[in-house]
Amino acid sequence: xxxxxxxxxxxxxxxxxxxxxxxxxxxxxxxxxxxxxxxxxxxxxxxxxxxxxxxxxxxxxxxxxxxxxxxxxxxxxxxxxxxxxxxxxxxxxxxxxxxxxxxxxxxxxxxxxxxxxxxxxxxxxxxxxxxxxxxxxxxxxxxxxxxxxxxxxxxxxxxxxxxxxxxxxxxxxxxxxxxxxxxxxxxxxxxxxxxxxxxxxxxxxxxxxxxxxxxxxxxxxxxxxxxxxxxxxxxxxxxxxxxxxxxxxxxxxxxxxxxxxxxxxxxxxxxxxxxxxxxxxxxxxxxxxxxxxxxxxxxxxxxxxxxxxxxxxxxxxxxxxxxxxxxxxxxxxxxxxxxxxxxxxxxxxxxxxxxx
Length: 356
Fold this sequence. Notes:
Strand order of the largest sheet: 12-15-14-13-16-17
Number of domains: 3
Distance between the termini: 52 Å
Shape: globular
Number of helices: 9
């Protein structure tokens, strides 16, 4: 097949490229340039040039073309502006889900023609066709599994995707990198939000929203315990960064009108239930809601799942009850639903949560 391979300069996408090349496919590599160079230059060095140099070296080693696609404007419009708006509203954004849906497998499609039968990436995920439909499956490596970030995709998008390393453990991918002797075989994995690189998210937020002193209030007593620089620097369930003695302290509530952050040393108590929430904007990859109402759910990227039950599923809204307590059920973040190995889709945790 003729395949467009998205490369980042990292090991995972490089191994995905090499696997497809070894299998005899006609591959071309694409690097999406989304760094906000002008805006973030003062915060630190944007490493896109280093990433691009590694991607170029990987392609040169097997003599295939590398295309650089500038998508800064699209990324700002579709992902960065959403992130800023959600933080300003006191919600917890998930920009990586939107990046996959709107940029990597959205805007990018306008830059390639129909001669490319598939688009491949270095995501840890798998796909299969069942009864004429494409389904998204968890990766072999439960720690690296990235289906959480792919849960916003449509059936049409999934139909064009390949995930060549989804059936490998991360350790096996590293072994393949050594076997192929790719130039970045020992490069460490990247962390954080893709458009920020090594730049701290708090610095990015401060640049856009500034700082505004507010009170840190103990939830149970109403006593002022200290001050903060703005509610937008905090998310529900946060423990680090509160900088108070006598803890550990947790963020349990935010008043965005009065710029108050409520904190507590007693996180899981009857007055602060953490086992149920409402969701809105429900998205099912298949286009249809599952018949089963008892599923599995991830509240954030990682290997931890909860069993959950749906109630009141209607008009893209539902109430979700977990089989355990979660530390950080924050409005705005995505809950991603599974039936066994299959990722079914996602929904946004709404303002009305915890059964209120």
